[in-house]
Amino acid sequence: MEKQNKALALLKIVLLTVIAAAFLFPIAVVFINSFKYKFDISNSPFTLPLGEAFAGMENYINGITATGFPDALLRSLFVTVFSVAAILFFTSMTAWYIVRVKGLFNKIFYYLLVFSMIVPFQMVMFTMSKTANLLGLDNPVGLVIIYLGFGAGLSTFMFCGFIKSIPLSIEEAATIDGCSPLQTFFLVVLPLLKPTAITVAILDTMWIWNDYLLPYLTVGHDYKTVPIAVQYLKGGYGSVDMGAMMAVLVLSIIPVVVFYLVCQKYIIKGVAAGAVKG
Question: In terms of domains, do 31 and 83 share one?
């Protein structure tokens, strides 16, 4: 039995290693090709950048210059940070109100938010872009508001699941001690929401940072985010500077990868906590 368990554990390790390698391989290819010339990328995309194929930092310099990458990076940081902050702040309060204040309106509102999770973005993208233009939301600040709307469904759902597991007696004790509803939320409930809040922040950060379609439809080339800037490396008649594009792709994934590696240990805990019905 002990030998069988060891064999099974070894098999799991090998299987997971193969799966991890399959996911990491495309990233490694992009990184390797970011140091090679266009001709060498086309002829031998899987070889190391050795000898005459090594382009040094030329691709990075060309990519940063051609795309205006620093401006796009700052714009993406602004949109991502403030969008995630707005989603966390407003949806956590909304979830707490929905769970603690029973009523028909709150129940309908909750199910409308849940329903929004299953509506494909393609169904509303043209109406959304037209509405954003009419309301003057076709700018980075307006983009934050739009992301708040699209991210509210899943975030509220996760927060509601966790809040249902919080004993009501804790909040009642805070009320007896003289806390107002807002004080109860910020001093008692919000600290308990940390695992779910971190999970929501990670998921929304990866979504917003990598999103191409919504910023492209809303702000276009006037306020380029990183995904849009990468697309602008494509020239006329389908020509693409592959070296510069690979370099910019490497630069664009570094922030979100670092953020994920720092916070990934909270994902499982937060998802499990948000799944409690109570």
Answer: no
Give the single-character DSSP code of 52: G
- In this model, does residue 277 exceed pLDDT 50? no
In angstroms, the CA 204 to CA 83 distance is: 9
Query: Over the stretch 118-169, which tens digit does the pLDDT of each residue have?
Result: 888 888 888 888 888 888 888 899 999 999 999 999 999 999 988 988 888 8
User: Tokens in use for 21?
Assistant: 């390698």
In this prediction, residue 236 has a pLDDT band, given cuts at 50, 70 and 90, of low
Cα separation of 232 and 227, whole Å?
A: 9
User: For the domain that residue 139 is a member of, what is the CATH number?
Assistant: 1.10.3720.10
Q: What is the crossing angle of helices 265-274 and 242-263, to 10°?
A: 60
pLDDT at position 5? 77
Please tell me whether residues 21 and 86 are part of one structural domain: no
**Exposed, middle or buried: residue 69 (CB in 10 Å: 0-12, 13-18, 19+)?**
buried
Give the residue-averaged pLDDT of 191-207.
88
pTM, full prediction: 0.83
Residue 274 has pLDDT above 60, yes or no: no
Asked if residue 14 and residue 134 are part of one domain, the reply reads no
**How many distinct structural domains can be found in the chain?**
2
Q: What is the DSSP string of 209-259?
A: HH--HHHHHHTTTTT--HHHHHHTTB-GGG-B-HHHHHHHHHHHHHHHHHH
Whether residue 151 sits in one domain with residue 37:
no
CA distance 130 to 64: 32
pLDDT at 2 > cutoff 80: no
For residues 107 and 47, membership in a common domain is answered with no
Residue 49 is part of which domain span? 2-56
pLDDT at 278: 43
